[in-house]
Amino acid sequence: MESTKKQYWKGLEELSKDPEFVKHADKEFSEYLPTNSELEETEAGSTRRDFLKLMGFGMAAVTLASCEAPIRKAIPYVNKPVDVDPGVANYYATTYNQGGDYASIVVKTREGRPIKIEGNKLSKITQGGTNAQIEASVLSLYDKERLAQPLKGGEATDWETLDAEVAAKLTDIAAKGGHIRLVSNTIMSPTALKAIEEFKAKFGNVELVQYDTQSAYGLSKAHKDIYGVAGVPSYHFDKADVIVSFDADFLGSWISPIEYSKGYAKTRKLGPKKKTMSRHYHFESNLSLTGANADYRTPIKPSEQGSAVVALYNEVAAKTGGTSVSGGGDFANVKKAAADLVKAKGKSLVVSGSNDPAIQTLIASINMALANFEKTITLNDYSNARKGDDAQMSNFMADAKAGRLDAVVFLSCNPVYNHSKGAELAESLKKVALTVSTSDRNDETASLVNYVAPNNHFLESWSDSEPKNGTFSLGQPTISPIFKTRQEQESLLSWAGNTTSYFDYLKNNWKENFSEGKEGLAFQSFWDKCLQDGIYETSKENFEINYTMSDDNQAAATIANNYKGDGFELALYQKVAIGDGSQANNPWLQETPDPITKGTWDNYVTVSLSDAKALGITEYEGKSIKVELTVNGASHKLPVVIQPGQAKGTLGLALGYGRKNGGKVANNLGFDANPLVGTLNGGAYFSVTTGVNLVATDEAYQVARTQTHQTYMDRGNIIQEASLKEYQKDPMAGREVPMIATWQDQEHGKVKATTLSLWKGHEYPDHHWGLAIDLNSCTGCSACHVACVAENNIPVVGRQEVINRRDMHWMRIDRYYSSNEEELAKTDGLVDRLAALDIASENPEVTFQPMMCQHCNNAGCETVCPVAATTHSTSGLNQMVYNRCIGTRYCANNCAYKVRRFNWFKYHDNEQFDMNSSMNNDLGKMVLNPDVTVRSRGVMEKCSMCVQRIQSGKLEAKKEDRRTNDADITTACASACPSDAIVFGDMNDDNSQLSQLLRIKNEEGDYGIDKQVNEERAYAVLEETGSKPNVLYLTKIRNTDKKESHA
Amino acid sequence: MTFGKNYLVGVFDDPDVILESIKSVRENGIKIHEIFSPHAIHGIDDYLGYKQSRLPIASFLFGITGASLALFTIIWMLGFDWPMIIGGKDFVSLPPFIPVTFEFTVLLAAHGMVLTFFIVSDLKPWAKPKVFDERCTDDKYIMAIDLGENKIAKDEINKVLSDTGASEVNEKNFK
Amino acid sequence: MQVSSPIREPLIHGGKTLHDVSEDICRQVEAKPSTAWKIGFVISLAALSIGAISVWVLLWDGIGVWGLNKTVGWAWDITNFVWWVGIGHAGTLISAVLLLFRQKWRMSINRAAEAMTIFAVICALMFPAFHMGRLWLGFYWALPLPNTFGSLWVNFNSPLLWDVFAISTYFTVSLVFWYVGLIPDFATIRDRAKNKISKAVYGGLAMGWIGGAKDWSRYESVSLILAGLATPLVLSVHTIVSMDFATSIIPGWHTTIFPPYFVAGAIFSGFAMVLTLMLVTRKLFKLEDYITIGHIELMNIVIIVTGSIVGIAYITEFFIAWYSGVPGEQYAFINRATGPYWWAYATMMTANVISPQLFWVKKIRTSIVSTFIISIIVNIGMWFERFVIVVTSIHRDFLPSSWAMFYPTIHDVGVYLFSFGFFFTCYLLFSKYFPVINIAEIKGILKSDGEKK
User: Fold this and answer.
1) What CATH number is attached to the domain comprising A318?
2) In terms of Cα–Cα distance, which of C96, C293, C292 is closest to C177?
3) Do the domain assignments include residue A687?
4) Residues A935 and A950 in one domain
5) Which of C74, C248, C402 sits opposite A860 (nearest CB)?
6) Contacts of B88 in chain A (CB under 8 A)
7) Which chains contact A through at least 3 pairs of Cβ atoms less than 8 Å apart?
8) Which positions in chain C touch A867 (Cβ < 8 Å)?
């Protein structure tokens, strides 16, 4: 009998018993419900329960998150900008170009704030490298001591009045045919130059005077005179097998260090496929960064500069059948260098940092004799990095003094401070009717002029550059101007009566000159491409260079009667971080230790060991005295540092200090050495060779140094090094593998200490992050150091706290000198020997060792923390949980590498630390990385291997549903490194750059902590402690004939 | 006839004397309520026929509890509830757990026993003790005999006490 | 059973009766405080309040007010901690160990010694507390309490956590041990008390003790077992303290000899401190008959023995460093003796190894003055021992790049002063209001020896 119960079909499918329907009939939602697929338990799709679970979790998470968190106001966008998503970083390609220092960069912005500068890998010049000053420049953007509006006679005014008055004054000066000067550092921007041309055209008698705080006038003049090139040649260190440098600090401060480091490093890399490296001779007075990396270093006095070059010239001439010139002398390693150079004809390079055309002439001839042109030196793509003309500048000074000038406009330059005749200029400016400065702050020069038209920070500006002939680079603003400032080019244009915005001006210029006649859309896409890449290379047709011979006898003669020295000789230099002092108000740079002396917040006289002994200057645990330095009658009381490698009878002193109007941080730090700069053969001369004297005073003083012990005490478990010859024979050369005896001795002999462990260890099934650091290519330039500070919100603690040995840097660069052999020879017995090992040698071999958390797999710090605030992740990271930390400091004590840092005080929002400007004022705080906690007082902190970058990289990969690769993740230090010495990667991934470098082979399914590292050079510091670090170092190899005995 | 409990209190000057007296008193079949002395008299338990105190056993049991509780908790916390990689050690690695286990054992053993002692001896700050003779905390040795418990006549007991060297014999009555 | 040969000279002199004992010892509890006591108390209070300023600054500004740095993370804080703990141990050892060994001479000194233990341990506890960067969280995060952090537990692998358990156990157990001993004496005072208040107070403290035979027998077994527990406890506590260093990897810390060597050191410094205090108390409260030259001599002998053990430990360390052939290890020890902190090492050597040897001479051993002086020297020496171990080991460890010096600041001194002020304030209060000698026990031994003819 048929059932009378009515049945309602859900649809025809039910009636027809459609299998697809039947399958889902029991489900509430028959189709797939788009909820978060990450959390799906079964592939059956999400149910309402899942949704509720998620919602519940969300609620709970939010509620928990709200616990203990202070209430903060977050104002949402009214109209959200298209490309700004809260929490998502944007990257813009732009250009760093300050007084001829150039780098193509990529700027990371968060919620519209630039917070980090990375190198632009597309650039053929800087190749993705940066340096300390560039990394730090993002903080200068948020310097609250920049001018907030134009000034008139020191009083705040507005742009309208300023423009009106300046324009008017310029016009009637022009009408009277008065002399107008534009003073500036090197300008390498074609469009800026165009704007200046327009300015000139408007006001007639206008002259652009360019000068450089680190002048290469001699170099460019020599090449202009001989080969008619309008710039400095571009050097290709990557092609050089033998490099000889006379006082050219090309890795630190000479012309284009990033470019040179990239090239130099390529020649220093070693591996199973490449067992050769360049040989580097260096002749200098102060121990410079470059000198520290040299294989053979000869200390010479500044007055011997010329004769040393002549000596080499003659040696080379003798070997290449050239004629020798008069002069010269006997210097260690010159013969050897000459021999190597000639052997490497065409693959060698001789450079000199001298600013004397005569010397540069000889250098050019040496390179000519070695057939290096068109190979390691090219002139077609000459560099615009140094266009300063010292002769022209001194003419300007003379004119100003004589009152021949009617108007001077200083384009963001500060000659009153950083030119030797600054004081004189300060006087002469009174005689000039109209003086204008476009400086971003009321600095030494700006405070003396009638009008200050403050320039934007470069991160607020449009710009273009031509670093090398035919290579261009675009700069775009990454934030709208913070203050009422204006780009100096726009100022010039508006005074010249051209009211187009600089952006349009720039774009038009590119349209006319670079786009090869592209129009409309074509041009737009060309423009967008350039803007996105940040760089643009044209194929400019090579111009003909006639390689005429120069008059070397003449040059030699000039040298002979120019260089005299008696008594002490003073050699002035620029520090890697502070440079010429234009960024002196940047606390990150002030606290960046000098790579060589490890000194911060100060400049000081560096004295050689033997001179110190003679003068009775001593140093104990960083404590020393002040000395009285007398230069041409005037004497100054200065701090002193005893400097191994300093040439006997010479003194070193850094420029860039002693600012008067630099800002709260910069002012009255150290001593202003600019007035000591002299002139020689037309160019600025950065040495004083006569009338210098030094005496010790009894005034105690301590330079704030982050490292007070200079040698590594011959501890092979820290630094492992060998000579190239040894390495070629045996890749294991210099390695110290700790062996240990076991009860099985008889059968097996000793076993590797690292193979013994109490614990069976944990598996890292997914990733196993690690770092490899090549001691051979690390130059110690400190770019990584500052990058780390910027990335991880590391506080600045100030001079006194550095003296108290409380610097907070997560990453430091340990600098070790070789111990003094003579002292060691004298000793007998362990006690004497250890004492002697502590003494550095007179002209030491130097090793740089970047040191950060080693992320030990068996970490001492983790075991001892009572509250488990530091534990290990399942991908090999040693994690520090700030929130859990109660600050017992036990972990720091038990860290063999002493890389943990404790928050002794509250460094943020604390006027006691107002020099820490990135955490103590609202503007400065804009630079903080929102992905990294600002640590509170009383907690421990340390290198996290940029875990925030790892996480975001993993997210990127996850979105694309794939495994991470090298492109996704790199640490701040690794990406900054201009010599690619630091490599980050996943040791579980055989294809990662790191695994390739260390030649790691993973057996399938075995992802334990003990990796099979097949690269012979790779070693872990303090291997024998069994800490099993995830940071490995590659042995230091020196290209010397024999390994200098380190006792 | 007085109400409440009546006691006969023998006061002695010397521990040895009171020991002797205890002997003869008990031989006479007299039940002793309790002996009070300014210090512990060794061997008195045997004279009074007291059993050895069972506090040591209590202490031992507390100790065992402490040990097992500590070890279990630690292993559960680090090994199962929230395992964390710490210094590359195994999640449950016994050696480091021993010190805490030991300390906790001692903690429970000591405090448990003392607490038990306070309870069984009825020691508490607000206690109102039956003081038979104030001098028993100074220099006298007191023998208290509950007349209610003894069939023997009061003066007979009195006699025994004074014969065995009690310097004085008083009566005490607690309401 | 208490047996003692008639030829042994009596422990208590002057032929005391039971009543005399109560009289002598309760006197200073019942009488008005003496001027000497008042002066002492005022000085201690002054030290306490001056030190309190440093403590305040420390907690308000941060650990930075101390002289520590990135290399030397511990200095005076942990030095003082170990030093105070060491001192504390003597009390327990005297009462517990000597009780187990039936050493009756302990009885005149154990009460004061135990009191000293308790106050010393509190002082010790201050430093791990103050040295924390975030005390306000640390004081309870260091305990395995259920919490809202996803039931995040403490790290039982950490020696510092072992300390938390060891010290707290040690403190509470010694406290109980001491109190149980006090109960009968409180009863004595209660029954002697004239005015209502003290009757009530001491009555409360006595918890209704009337000295029944049953209670006495329980009392006896309780103190015996507590002694049995306290003995391994006291050894374990200093062993664990030494493990703070022994289980680390720092050369000069990572040493298996530490546990026995620390325990010996503890007894050494503890006995010295007991002597210092007893000699003062003895004079102050005229207890010459109870704390005799005999006692002092016996303790001096203990000091010779432990002092020599410590000396041997120092030498052994050097031998092992040389024998190990590990450069870091060798440097650590040579640096101790010849490095920038050689003077600390020299002080330690003379004070701890040389000075106690003087006690071989009976004249010195039995002279109050020399004992007093040496006992203080020893305590200075033991402070420097801890300083040498803590600071000179870490200030130059593995990487020469981070070698640094430690210079104490005024606040390092201030906080140390605070602990002294606290200790003596407590000790003086105790000696005024509590019986400084165990009345009941003394009475117990009056009969067995020193009987009056």
Assistant:
1) 3.40.228.10
2) C96
3) yes
4) yes
5) C248
6) 757, 759, 761-762, 856-859, 862, 872, 1009, 1028
7) B, C
8) 138, 141-142, 154-155
Both A690 and A726 in one domain: the answer is: no
The better pLDDT of the pair A454, A73 is held by A454
Instruction: Say if CB C118 and CB C130 are below 8 A apart.
Output: no
Could you give the angle at which helices B55-74 and B98-120 cross, rounded to 10 degrees?
150
Tell me which residue range forms the domain holding A191. Answer: 89-210+385-468+471-539
Q: For chain C, which residues score pLDDT lower than 70?
A: 1-15, 447-453
Select from C215, C202, C448, C191 the least CA-distant residue to B136: C191
Q: Tokens 């971003």 correspond to what residue? A: A440
Q: CB–CB of A125/A383 below 8 Å?
A: no
pLDDT band at A1047 (very low <50, low <70, confident <90, very high): very low
Which residues in A672-759 belong to E strands, given as ranges?
678-680, 683-685, 687-702, 704-705, 721-723, 739-740, 751-752
Whether residue A442 is found in the same domain as residue A326: no
CATH architecture of B5-51+128-174: 2-Layer Sandwich (3.30)
Provide the domain count of chain A.
Answer: 5
DSSP of C87-156: HHHHHHIIIIIHHHTT-GGGGGTHHHHHHHHHHHHHHHHHHHHHT-TTHHHHHHHTS----TTTSPPP-T
- Residue A84 inside a domain? The answer is no
* Same domain for A464 and A365: no
Domain C18-448 classification at class level: mainly alpha
Question: Sheet containing A1018-1019: which strands, arranged edge to edge?
Answer: A982-986, A769-774, A1031-1034, A1018-1019
Cα(C264)–Cα(C246) distance, integer angstroms: 16
Report the mean per-residue pLDDT for chain A: 90
Q: Is B99 on the interface with A (CB under 8 A)?
A: no
Consecutive H or E run containing A319: helix A305-320
Q: Tell me if A216 is assigned to some domain.
A: no
Q: Which of C204, C233, C444 sits opposite B39 (nearest CB)?
A: C444
Q: For chain B, give every domain's residue range.
A: 5-51+128-174, 55-120
Nearest to A760 among B86, B87, B90 (CB): B90
- Do A931 and A1026 sit in the same domain of this protein? yes
d(CA A567, CA A1023): 49
- How far is it, in rounded angstroms, from Cα A34 to Cα A285? 71
A521 and A669 in a common domain: no
With an 8 Å Cβ cutoff, is B86 touching chain A? Answer: yes
Most B-contacting residue of C26, C145, C157, C186 (CB-CB within 10 A), to test interface:
C157
pLDDT of A1044 > 60? The answer is no
**Tokens found for residue A704:** 């704030």
Rounded CA-CA distance A98/A327 in Å is 39
Contact C110, C98 (CB under 8 A): yes
Q: Letter for the amino acid at A263?
A: G
Distance in angstroms (rounded) separating the CA atoms of residues B55 and B60? 9
Are A270 and A379 found together in one domain?
Answer: yes
- Same domain assignment for residues A755 and A842: yes
pLDDT band for B154, please (50, 70, 90 cuts). Answer: confident
**pTM across the whole model:** 0.90
How many CB pairs below 8 Å do chains A and C form together?
Answer: 182
CA–CA distance, C259 with A44 (Å, rounded to integer):
62
Report the sign of the C-alpha dihedral through residues A27, A29, A33, A38, in that order.
Answer: negative
d(CA C216, CA C210): 10
Residue A441 or residue C91, greater confidence: A441
Closest CA to C109 of C443, C436, C444, C445: C436
- Write down the pLDDT at residue A251: 95
**How far A435 CA lies from chain C's nearest CA (Å)?**
49
What interface predicted TM-score (ipTM) does this complex get?
Answer: 0.91
